[in-house]
Amino acid sequence: MNKGYRSVWLLVIFLLLALFIFWWLRDSGDRSSSGPVQDGKERAIPVETSPVERGPITLRRAFTGTLEPHAQFVVAPKVSGRVEQITVNIADSVTRGQVVAQLDDDEFVQALAQARADLEVARAKRIETCLLYTSPSPRDRTRSRMPSSA
Fold first, then answer.
1. Among residues 6, 31, 63, 121, which one has the fewest Cβ atoms lying within 10 Å of its Cβ?
2. In a 3-state reduction of DSSP, which class is residue 85?
3. Which of 14-18, 58-62, 111-115 is least confident?
């Protein structure tokens, strides 16, 4: 038991001695390199200077947080499609009826052209059918050429 206390005391003395040496070396290094006075003489400290300028003073601060709108709306177009152009930015105010985005209309232009072509085909068929049923048949044409016997 006595030997255990002896080793603890030796360890404590060694640690105190190491701490004292560390403090002495650090303190002696600070005295020689810091301060404007060294060995009774003033030592020059380098500084950077600039001329005085007039100008506005701006106060800038950075904050973090969450912004919440007064009102929020979901924009739901009547037709689906690919967005080609967005005409407003985030946080812009918009009015009722204002164009917010433009959709790609290539498919709709092509569908319109196809519908117009189908309409022209239907009109041509109608005219052809009207002419077919209103014109005299070949049998009626021969009767009209024959003299009437009455």
1. 63
2. strand
3. 58-62
C-alpha to C-alpha distance for 8 and 16, rounded to whole angstroms: 12
> What is the model's pLDDT at position 137?
62
Q: What is the pLDDT of residue 138?
A: 59
Backbone torsions φ then ψ of 95, nearest 5 degrees: -115, 165
Confirm if 94 and 75 have CB atoms less than 8 A apart: no
What's CA 27's distance to the chain center, in Å? 56
CA distance 126 to 120: 10
Residue with the two structure tokens 């024959």:
146
CA-CA distance, 124 to 130, in Å (whole number)? Answer: 10
CA dist 40 and 67 (Å) reads: 62
Average pLDDT value for residue range 16-38: 72
Residue 45 banded pLDDT, cuts 50, 70, 90: confident
Cα–Cα distance, 119 to 8 (Å, whole number)? 107
**DSSP collapsed to 3 states, 40-68:** CEECCCCCCCCCCCCCCCCCCCCCCCCCC
